[in-house]
Structures are given as structure tokens and as C-alpha cells.
Amino acid sequence: MKKLFLIFLLVILSMASAKAQSLVVFIHDGDGPYSNVRNAPNGKIVDRIPTDQNAMLDVYDPVNGWWEIADGSYYVPDGGMPRLTPAKKHYIHSSCIAVSTRNYGGQRLSLRKTPSAKGAAVYSFSQEILLRPLDITNGWVKVKTLDGKHTGWIQDEWLCGNSVTNCN
């Protein structure tokens, strides 16, 4: 039942932002107990999301490392209460969010130089890893490995925005 609810929630979160491609992500920020939410890229801090809540967000329209948070998309699977004010713009930096890969069966995935299956592979791996999302276009997400060593494009179908469970 919980898995069905999470799938339903992810569908709703994806529909929340009809104006652009969106991506479900989770908070992954090692800089303290909170991740700052701002009113604009590099703007004023208007809220904070506790880093220990496994919070999930639907984000879209990345600009210079900043993602806009879709209205009503802040979800805490552990039962915490979302706090972002509806109908106001909220932004979070890519250094505070992550997605995991969905290669649960050990599939070999590659980050590509361009957003295309024909793009040259810049990094390949068979284990599940965490990635920082940087951009999104036509079903491809530009990501960076957490260690910052590799950057490339991966199809969004291989990404999971849930830190609590996998996205199967």
C-alpha cells in the first residue's frame, strides 16, 4: 500500500509543474541540519528543510544550479509536516539535492557527453550511485557524481527521487 501511495504521489508531483519538465529529487545536504530554500536563485532565505526528514521535492526550470520547487510538492515520507508556503516561488540549489540510479539489477549505465543515447560515454558504472541534478531536457538529466569527478547526461527513467525506498 505504501509503495502504491508513493507511486501515486510521484505521478501527482510530476504533474504539478506543467510548464516545464520536472524531476523528483530528495534532500541530500551534508552542510548542517537544514537546507536553505530561497525566494529566487541566490535570493533571500525564506525557509529551511530539515536534512534528516528524507524530504522529496518536485523541481524544474534549473538556472545556474538553482531549481524551482513546484508548489505543493514538498513531501516527507517519514510523516513530517511540509512547511513551504503554497503559491510562492521557492528555489533550492543543486548542491542540496540528489537522485539515485535505478540500476538495481546491476545494469551498466553511462553518463553521456550529450543528451542522447549516441553521445559518447564519459563515465560508466554498474552499482547504484547518488547524483546531483544540474539540468533537464527532453527526458535527459545532466548530473554530477557526488565526488564531483564526473558530469554527464543520463535518461531520466534511470533515476529515482526517493531516498527511503527504490522506485520499482
Briefly say what this structure is.
The protein is mainly beta and 168 residues long. The protein has one helix at residues 2-15; strands spanning 22-27, 34-38, 45-50, 56-63, 66-69, 90-93, 97-101, 109-112, 121-125, 130-137, 140-145, 151-155, 159-160.
What does this structure look like?
With 168 residues, the chain is mainly beta. Helices cover 8% and strands 40% of the residues. The longest helix is centred in the first third of the chain and has 14 residues. The protein is globular. 30% of the residues are buried. The N terminus is likely disordered.
Compute the number of helices.
1
List the secondary-structure elements in sequence, H or E: HEEEEEEEEEEEEE
Taking all residues together, what is the mean pLDDT? 86
Structural class by SSE content = mainly beta
The proportion of residues forming helix, as a percent range, comes to under 10%
Distance between the termini: 14 Å
Radius of gyration, in angstroms, nearest whole number: 15 Å
Binned strand content: 35-45%
Uncertain runs? 1-19
Shape: globular
**Can you summarize the main beta sheet?**
9 strands, antiparallel
E-strand count: 13
